[in-house]
Write a structure and sequence with these properties.
The protein is of the alpha/beta class and 476 residues long. Helix content is 40%, strand content 25%. A 7-stranded mixed beta sheet has the order 15-18-19-14-13-21-22, with helices on both faces. Helix 6 links the parallel strand 9 and strand 10 (196-198). The radius of gyration is 23 Å and the shape is globular.
Length: 476
Amino acid sequence: MLHRNLIGGEWVAGEASPNINPANTNETIGEYARASVKDAQAAIAAAKAALPSWSRVPILQRQSVLRKTSDEILARKDELGRLLAREEGKTLPEAIGEVLRAAQIFDFFAGEVLRLAGETLPSVRPDIGVEITREPVGVVGIITPWNFPIAIPAWKIAPALAHGNTVVLKPADLVPGSAWALVDILHRAGAPAGVINLVMGRGSVVGQTLLDSPDVNALTFTGSTGTGKRVALASIEHNRKFQLEMGGKNPFVVLDDADLDVAVEAAANSSFFSTGQRCTASSRLIVTEGIHDRFVAALTSKLQSLVIDDPLKAGTHIGPVVDESQLCQDVDYIAIGKAECARLAFGGERLERENPGFYLQPALFTEATNAMRIAREEIFGPVATVIRVRNYEEALATANDTNFGLSSGIATTSLKHATHFKRNSEAGMVMVNLPTAGVDFHVPFGGRKGSSCGPREQGRYAAEFYTTIKTAYTFA
């Protein structure tokens, strides 16, 4: 079966592309259409044509579409989770958890539709009233990455539709299945023709068409730093709003007074679960001298106990890397770490399993410095580096010594240090005695420095990007 693109309410065929299971490369999950430039242009035109009607429909109609979408995602969580695990490689429990999050996001924004509000203020002039309202920004182009195939499309689509915008979605070419399923649900939930459009395919074709179009009023992107810069430059040329979520090199600080078990569990989860393929993953473990050796020994023991296997198998902790290209990048960085004279304390070997796949043993480096490439460049795989420091002050300085600023964490039992770290960590999100990865669906998501640009995603803060503010005066 060919899974087609959705353009103007119609399913449109295109060049077929196979969706391959990274845990078993002999298995093709399905065939998915790749859109052409003309397809992408047609999708943008359809979204533009649908905007006047959708932006003014009664709010209960918008609320109904989002609510029905949430309900179906929830009802099909096991099926959709299995699809996600097969195409992306994260374990089945993680995949089902991501599907549940997508359902929660649509449920939250179904409620937000009924909570849309403005302000009425008195003017400084007599007999004049002032109304401040939010209106849809227009046609929203959405470009999503492969590491969260349903959650990230959900947290961009749901607020866009809730605030009356129309959407053109370009999911990652590597994992089209979950996005296709989500758009199919939205389509059957009653989204009118042109309100949600799906154009799968290559970034150089579909993504570039979105960047080049003057009819795309806002563009939200999650992906690499290099591509994010191209999105920004193209958006500035067209005077459009843009929102970028890009890379991370997130620190996790472990102080001498930390609970060792808590620190190890948080570090292992942050660095290696989801195969380290999270922008919020912690790849820099900054550890003070007094606990360093015990922490490294305990974390190594933890890594030895982890099962790396088919993500659908019960008991698997870590699945495969998403594809051959990403695996080669991970292996290359492991070689770079060795060449930089960091000590490979554990792992880093490619693994063979029952079926051919992209399996990699988690890699842990010690005796590293923050100047090394493995401590400065985003690897996006199950590779973490331990950096020894003398005290809290050096730990904080090292944590902040990065071009990125998405997430950070600290393990400590000191209220003083926890409070100081929360206030002084140069990151958009800070965790105390928790993994750096994993945030709630109803709170803002985003970072600083080279990690993010533009308004925050998720929660009520999403309105800052998906709406434009109008100020109206009335003389009574």
